[in-house]
Design brief:
This protein is α+β, with helices and mostly antiparallel strands. Helices cover 17% and strands 36% of the residues. The strands form two sheets. A five-stranded mixed beta sheet has the order 2-8-7-4-5, with no helix packed on it.
Length: 157
């Protein structure tokens, strides 16, 4: 027979063993590497948002005022300056000139991506006394939605 003091000691040891076992089981469950949420699986960091570009703002050196710009020959140079922060990959510039009378295209050019200003463009095939609308479109080489367009009237004297 076990003396009474030893019996209490065994009960205390058994209780401590049970508590310790439960603690180990709970800690093991909390630290397991499961794929379920909260299971401590591999965490993939979120992808950082792409840096946004400033909206393109530009000017050009032809100033028709409120009238029609009078070109002196069949061609007219136009210098375009991007005044906003230049997109990293640069800008692509389109220059399209159409006759006001019938909408037919007089000249059209697309200038390769450039990060340098001014951007030199050329309007060609201007006929005497034919009023045209020139449309200059400057767009980011990387962000298709970052586009700005300006128009002006032009005719050869």
């Amino acid at each position: 027979m076990i003396p009474k003091n030893n019996s209490n000691v065994l009960k205390q040891l058994s209780f401590r063993l049970i508590v310790f076992s439960l603690f180990v089981v709970l800690v093991s469950a909390a630290c397991s590497k499961g794929g379920s949420p909260g299971g401590g699986g591999t965490v993939t960091p979120p992808t950082p948002p792409a840096p946004t570009e400033d909206a393109i703002v530009f000017t050009y050196d032809i100033d028709p005022g409120s009238n029609i710009y009078a070109a002196l020959g069949t061609s007219q140079e136009v210098k375009i300056s991007v005044t906003s922060k230049m997109p990293t990959a640069g800008v692509i510039t389109d220059i399209v000139v159409k006759k006001d009378a019938d909408g037919s295209t007089v000249s059209s050019s697309t200038l390769a991506a450039s990060t340098m200003v001014p951007i030199n463009g050329m309007i060609t095939n201007l006929a005497a006394n034919v009023v045209c609308t020139a449309t200059i479109t400057v767009k980011s080489a990387t962000t298709a939605t970052n586009t700005t367009t300006k128009t002006f009237k032009i005719a050869r004297k």
